[in-house]
Design a protein that fits this description.
317 residues; alpha/beta; Metallo-beta-lactamase, Chain A; 9 helices; globular
Length: 317
């Protein structure tokens, strides 16, 4: 589905900031306003992109960045957090698990990996990393961590809006949060939803992610803003859950006959999901299922997984 970059008015003082094409790093964000107050749902992958968004919000919505009281980071990934420093007056809210994960993967680390990959280091994984993140300037990012954390659920008031923050992770990452505005019938899902793009299960378990999709469906919202891709409806939520069920079933069937995760990722035919953006993420998703089913408590080897994704990506291209 084609969709435009920029602000989409959701009504009731809510807006979505959309970034086509929704692939690696091109995430969405949201703005909630009411009674002279404003909250931002997520920032973007670098400060230049975030500055562009904030300028557009001031021009179109009349909301200055210094008037934004709260930023909610839906999870730890940099494409939802790296613009935090531009919101100098805002409280930064995230789950406790996300705050820990942000400290473990600072923007300096991404800048170093991108530079190393661009220089030919780190092999095919480095080449892939540098290529997919070429549009973004990690070197210019100033890290601003959360100033308020929570576990489970929290809420905040933005004018007359009562905003619910619901922790549904670990799923995509260690501490995913969805942002529900019941009186506006709207939900900002963070990366629980990738629409027309392939979800990537860094943390898991997959069952938690499917449960998060079920929770969104039970809310029956009129407006669903995904972390990546165009605005969606309940059919899009079900598509994501169906993909996750498909991956788990295909991975487990190979696990039970002794196939390794790298071999399994190459062996699985993606069928109707093959045309989704970033289909090579199947390598990470299979590995996460493998770690769960084997009882492993080891953290994922990110560099190895980027190497597996690179192989799939370059082989298919």
């Amino acid at each position: 589905m084609a969709y435009a970059k920029g602000l989409t008015d959701l009504g009731n003082g809510l807006w979505a900031w959309m970034q086509p094409d929704g692939g690696w790093g091109f995430s969405n964000a949201g703005l909630i306003t009411g009674g002279g107050e404003a909250a931002l749902v997520d920032t973007l992958f670098d400060e230049a992109l975030t500055d562009e968004m904030l300028r557009a919000m001031e021009a179109s919505c009349g909301v200055r960045r210094d008037a934004i009281d709260t930023v909610v980071n839906t999870h730890a990934n940099g494409d939802h957090t790296h613009g935090n420093a531009l919101l100098t007056n805002a409280e930064i809210v995230a789950s406790e698990a996300s705050a820990r994960e942000m400290e473990a993967f600072p923007p300096e680390m991404l800048a170093q990996l991108k530079a190393a990959g661009g220089a030919g280091a780190l092999g095919e994984a480095g080449r892939y990393f540098a290529e997919i993140f070429a549009p973004f300037d990690f070197a210019g990012v100033r890290h601003k961590p959360p100033t308020r954390t929570f576990s489970g659920h929290a809420s905040l008031d933005v004018g007359s809006h009562r905003v619910q923050l619901l922790e549904v992770g670990p799923a995509h990452t260690a501490g995913d949060v969805i942002v529900h505005v019941p009186d506006a019938s709207a939900v900002f899902t963070g990366d629980i939803l990738f629409i027309e793009g392939t979800p990537i299960v860094w943390a898991g378990p997959v069952s938690n992610w499917i449960a998060a999709c079920d929770l969104i469906e039970a809310m029956n919202p009129a407006h669903i803003v995904p972390g990546h891709g165009p605005l969606t409806d309940l059919s899009g939520v079900r598509e994501v859950a169906d993909y996750l069920r498909f991956v788990e079933a295909e991975a487990v069937s190979r696990f039970t006959v002794g196939m390794g995760p790298e071999e399994a990722a190459l062996d699985i035919g993606l069928g109707r999901y093959a045309g989704w953006k970033d289909a090579e993420r199947i390598a990470v998703n299979v590995d996460t299922v493998w770690r769960e089913w084997s009882g492993s408590t080891d953290a994922p080897d990110a560099l190895a997984l980027f190497g597996r994704m690179a192989k799939l990506f370059y082989d298919r291209r």
